[in-house]
Automatic annotation (TrEMBL):
Its EC number(s): 2.3.1.9
The protein, known as: Acetyl-CoA C-acetyltransferase
Alphabetical keyword list: Acyltransferase, Transferase
Source organism superkingdom: Bacteria
Primary enzyme class: transferase
Amino acid sequence: MAEAYIIDAVRSPVGRRGGSLSGIHPADLGAHSLRALVDRVGIDPGAIDDVVLGAIDAIGGQAGNVARTAALVAGFPEHVPGVTIDRQCGSSQQAVHFAAQAVMSGVDDLVIAGGLQNMSQVPLLAAAIVGEAYGFTTPYAQSPGWRERYGDQEISQFAGAELIAEKWDISREEMEQFALESHRRAAVAQDEGRFSNEIAPLNDLDRDEGVRRDTTLERMAQLAPLREGGRITAAVSSQISDASSAVLIASARAVREHGLTPRARIHQMTVRGASPVLMLTAPIPATRHALERAGLGVGDIDLFEVNEAFAPVVLAWMRELDAPYEKVNVNGGGIALGHPIGATGTRLLATMLNELERTGGRYGLQAMCEGGGVANVTIIERL
């Protein structure tokens, strides 16, 4: 089968809600990573066959196929198309899959995959909230077919996180220790410059804003749970953030014709579903499926990036896969670095790629839980 190569990966810093990037129009936020990517690679943007960007809540500045808008704002020629996709938290990771599939099939030779999200301007679930205000039905509860299959129980990522903590008997204290370590690892990574090769500074911001260097277990313990009697607090949840990210995927022919130097190749791509009630457990079966299809075991993987939507998601995943914590999210995760939903997938990929190069690892595995009980898993091989 034809190969899909990763040529480069670039991202903006991740801004905190209401922070340094909050006032940037989503299209301009996305355009920043697109421009930075083609400038770094030194390729004519007119050679790009497609721009595939993830973004959820297609409303306001993120409406109207924002991928196309971002490409035009970035100065790409008008013949370069763009498409926006929504696989919830895995949107930009799915963009990578679509880009790689287009290249491997021979349909395209150069595709930019990435994502954007300005959660300061467009709050999470904004589209559903506006829809309700206009009298439209909600995504789940008002569907008769849905109620027939799943009843009237609450369906949300917050409820799912609580259910996971209960099912795997993960204590609040264990989750808070995990969250504290996420911040500690992220701070070390910043101090050692581990993110510098992937971040294209924006608005005088050159590092992720969410890292809390002064947080403590005592402070976390004082926070009220998100729901009465629950274990999940803001401290063990990913941060609402603003950012963009982009990856250039190329065929072997494009590598030859444009004189490109691949940094890695896509080794395996998986997407799998699981319970939409538990919501966030699909990375477990998806990882097992990806490893089986790749003919690899957990011990063959040098680095894991498992999105920290909530601490119990990663803790349950590690228990089920028997994955060593010293290889998982070694530079921190969404709890410390933020989770700009549409952009997170390719943010994780950029971080994993650079860390594989820093440590000399061969294989990296990225897993993402997603709304609706779905998960993407991507395995890359450093070249």
